Amino acid sequence: MRSVRALAAAVLSLLALYDVAHAAEKQGGILRVYHRDSPASASIHEEATYSVNVPFMPVFNNLVIYKQDVAQNSLESIAPDLAESWAWSGDGKSLNFKLRQGVKWHDGKPFTSADVKCTFDMLMGKSAQKFRKNPRKSWYDEVADVAPNGDFEVAFNLKRPQPALLALLASGYTPIYPCHVSPR
Question: What are the residues whose beta carbons fall under 8 Å from the beta carbon of 123, sequence distance 6 or more?
């Protein structure tokens, strides 16, 4: 029980750092996070444990994310992040997102639907660019394609309904990467 409390305290302190860093939103600087491990990389998509997720989740954004102030994750506790809103098609085979406008990467380039498509094409192994490791590739086996509709809408088209897809997208293991930066 003591280790659960320690982990909860660590997560809460990281979330506090995220709020401070998010409010400041300035380029450059140093983010220091004291951690029990030495992660192999900062790439959440290429690593398999929360030893990478915990320190680097505040650096990246997801389309959607679980509300951090709700004790138990559920579909009702999913909140927008890079997406403004989302909706399932009537047949449950398409999950459509409207994306936030005005979001910029740390280098000042704009975030668009191309970044979402690029990220998921790499995750699904459909891109010329490859991750060194891809431990969660199977999460997206039912995704036929990710189709942008302009710069600020994107649809996840499924081979068959996968109700858990929204929950997977809300996990801390599903950040969007900038398409203009090589995953290497």
Answer: 45, 131, 134, 136, 137, 139, 140
